[in-house]
Structures are given as C-alpha cells and as structure tokens.
Amino acid sequence: MFDHVGIQVADVEASALFYTSIFAPLGFTEAMRIPAPAGPVVGIAGRDGIPGFWVSPNLRGDTREDHIAFSAGSREEVDAVYAAAVAAGCEVLHEPRVWPEYHEGYYAVFLRDPDGHNVEAVSHH
Question: Residue 63 has what pLDDT?
C-alpha cells in the first residue's frame, strides 16, 4: 500500500539512531541522508535496502502521537527488538505477547520513540 512513510521529529540524529539501533533486528539501516536547511532528512531501509521510512525535522513545532507498526519476520525478531529497547532504556508500552483481539497469530511489542510516537514490531507468523 505505501511506497514510503515519513514522520517529523524534534531531533533527526536521535531518531535515526533510535530506529537503526532498536529495529536493527528487522534489518533497519540508514540508507540515505539528504541535507536540508533545517537539518538532514534521513531515509531508513529494511532488508531490501530501499528507504521506506523517513525522519525529518519538525518545522511546525507541534507534537502528536503517531502509531507505526514495522513487520518482523518472526516472533524471535520481535523479542530481539524488545531486548534492544530494554537495553537502550526505551519506554516499553507493552511487552511482547500474542494479541488475540487482533488475530490469533498477532505477536507484537509496543515502544515509545524519542518523540512520543507509539512504534511497534509485529509478526503475523
């Protein structure tokens, strides 16, 4: 459905580090960096190497909570994201578990990113 998704953040460097380190078990890496007057715009790729998730400077200054779920290939990858988050001192909203209210195989962890967004790693396997 999506070609790419972007969010605006208060600190691009902190957010790029958050996503590339916490979601490294899902293959996240910095794939592209575009200089801009207000600060860089960073494209983050998954295993395919295509930057499908972008973080850029928040020029409006307002904040809001977005929810973004990233696909994990297995429950073990969800658990690895959780372990990375705990090791980094991230706020864990919900520890990894099955969420039967979504569907029988929905296994996910929910975290808070540096800008207050609700981010998730989910496996449907």
Answer: 79
